[in-house]
Amino acid sequence: MGKVYGFCGAATNHYPSPMADGPSGREPAAERPALPTLQEHLGRVQEYLRSCGFLAFPASETPLRQKLAAFMEEHRDETARIWAETVGRAFRISEEDLCFLAQDMREAVVRWLAHVRNPDDVETYEALREHARGGFIARHPPSRFLTSQLKIRHILGDLLRRDKRDSPDLPELLALLDQALWERVLHITDFFVEAREQELADQHERYRRSLDSAPAILFMVDPEDGVINGSNLVAERQLASAMRSPVGSALWELHPEGERDAVRTLFRETVTRGSAGKENLHLERASKDPLPVDLRTTLITYGDNRIVQAMYVDLSERRRLEFQLIQSEKMAAIGQLAAGIAHEIRNPLGIIMNALYDLAELLPEPTPEVREDLHIARVEMARVQEIINNLLEFSRDSQTEVQAVDLNVLIGRTLKLMNKYLQNSGVRARAELHSVMPCRASENGMRQVLLNLITNAVQAMPEGGELRVRTEPLDGDRVGLSVSDTGVGIPPERLGRIFDPFYTTKSPGEGTGLGLSVVHSVITNAGGTIEVTSHQGHGSTFSIALPAELEASPHEPPSAGREGA
Ligand SMILES: Nc1ncnc2c1ncn2[C@@H]1O[C@H](COP(=O)(O)OP(=O)(O)OP(=O)(O)O)[C@@H](O)[C@H]1O
Ligand SMILES: [Mg+2]
Questions:
Q1: Side by side, which strands form the sheet with 217-221?
Q2: Is 529 in contact with 327 (CB distance < 8 Å)?
Q3: Which atom of ligand 1 is the closest one to the Cα of 390?
Q4: Would the CB of 486 count as within 6 Å of ligand 1?
Q5: Ligand 1 neighbourhood includes 389 CB (under 6 angstroms)
Q6: CATH dotted code for 398-562
Q7: How confident is the model at residue 134 (pLDDT cuts 50, 70, 90)?
Q8: How far is the CA of 439 from the centre of ligand 1 (A)?
Q9: How confident is the model over 58-102, as pLDDT tens digits?
């Protein structure tokens, strides 16, 4: 890459800065203005020259032009030799390189004289433009190249005065030579600037792309007042739903009230010490939970400029994994306890059930009240037994019974089984079943998973609604299963608790709060994951990913299952 010189700074006006201070802090790359074509460029310079009255000689083939061109051609070698010797010395070019220099100049004079003869021949400018973009012109200061061009004019002038001393055309030939030289110098100057502009624009583009592809939210902040004046694409995507663009706000204004003082202090520390950092902060987002982040700030100085770069690392994925870990540890502990209790209670429970049965048989003529009480006792005992079964299912180490389970078939059967219940509850079921590999899980467990998720969904839609059960292949040899409803939804503050055993919002007798614990334990025992997204008043979606049974082939969904119940 060529060296960049002072004047190029002005060229940056043409292109958006990578951290521009527009409303969104950027302009798309596609809006970058196209470079002028060579014809546009030549036309523009011609126009300036004409308007300033510098074009004394028309741009068409004339006898005078032919005469000057013929002279240049005739003196081409001499011109190039004198030029190479003078310029070579001035620019300290080595002896060995002088002949190459002279050869280059001979070729340049040939191209130039073709243009002098016929101004429509612009090969000389094609070559100059090319060289300005990374060629030899780009490798040296422009003043060096321009003085060497003035030298050519000087040498040709001397030769004209020597050989055409007595020609009446001499003054006109010299004037035409000057006109051709001015034109050339103006074009070369524009080519220089244009090439540097392009180089800068390319550098900016590279810089912008590298910032945009950084796996973090980046802001450029004014060290004086903490106001953000640029952001990268990740920031725009992550905070797209913010009430207003972060650009123009003070850095701390992006944080919840309680964190602002800490961020202000951190910012001041950055400006005095050069860098700072803080963990466990949050960035506010409109209509979304605050984004958990770590913040690192650095003061960048270059020349007289200072800017603070703020880098936010998104912690939501880490938090999700931590939550899953805590959840599974909690489940494991409760599971052991539950298994112990369930085991201990099962035997006395069986004895009580038998006793109730005997009592009903032994009583000769029970009164209606006694009969009613016996009935209640039996129904409630059945409920206790169901809870015990759930507890055992929840605590069972299902690894041993993992097998290939065809989810599409299981969903078809479950929906058929629950058809009446769904209809009575005013729920329309839609099964969106795709061709998926069987998953590796406990079949009985997966039945529980479907029953629990569907029951919860129906209970969340007291006025009826739509239940959607979906299967789909996922990346990384996993099978996706999701159950969605259009029900009441789950408030954000409850989302973290719904998988806890015995957590229920249902009235006593309606729910034990074990359904989702069982679901969680079956899924994690099978090596899968479960996530929930919910919008209050609009519904919830439970999304499960399970490892596929790789030894099996994908199962087509049963045709009956496609339409749903
Ligand atoms: N689809 C859903 N929509 C709204 N809230 C839900 C949904 N699924 C679960 N919940 C909430 O999560 C809580 C826990 O669910 P879970 O299935 O574990 O227990 P439960 O349904 O209350 O009782 P059980 O399933 O033991 O009969 C529910 O009480 C409810 O508040
Ligand atoms: Mg439930």
A1: 228-231, 217-221, 305-314, 288-302, 275-285
A2: no
A3: 26
A4: no
A5: no
A6: 3.30.565.10
A7: confident
A8: 25
A9: 888 899 999 999 999 999 999 999 999 999 888 888 888 888 889
